[in-house]
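Narrative summary of target 7.
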Amino acid sequence: MLGGIVRGRRVSLRPMRDDDLPGVSRWSADLRVRRAHSAGYWAEPATLATWKERLAEASKDHRSVLWAIESDGALVGSAAVGMPDPAFSDIVDVRHLTIDPERWRRGLGWDAALTVHRWIFDIAHVRIAATRVPADAAGALRIAERLGYTTFARGRRAYWHDGAHVDETRLRMELATWDERFGESERDYEALGPEAEA
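Modeled conformation, tokenized:
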């Protein structure tokens, strides 16, 4: 499904639109993006018609949430999370968070990551966030560490980058870590009391 509006300090998450797709198409064809993370088909180049089909599919998928990331009125990235299956877990899978490579190293990735996680932990009130990134994706790993993620597993030789296999790092972060690090500064809503957890 398409996510609603969530405002960060420098970026906002908003529903993705058809007029965003040329930007998504441009950066998904950029090798810097393709080697930086495992975003599934959101990091695979395609024609504009295919992107429209992917957006239509994503808007009907009730097991995931997709956002466009906007800063100063311009599209700067996209993000998606997989929703937990209520019967089995309380874990959100951060599937991708992509910033246009022409806007890297400006702090937009950090603010977007913080905003996505504020939605996960404060608005959706999920207990655990998990993600997976290539072991050589230094920027993504720095952001994950700053957020409070810890490594819980490694996938061996999961990606092919620059003529060699690269491992995959699997990370997770719990609501308690979010509250400890960001509960005072990033909370939109009052914390739920213990009775809400029963």
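The chain has seven helices and eight strands.
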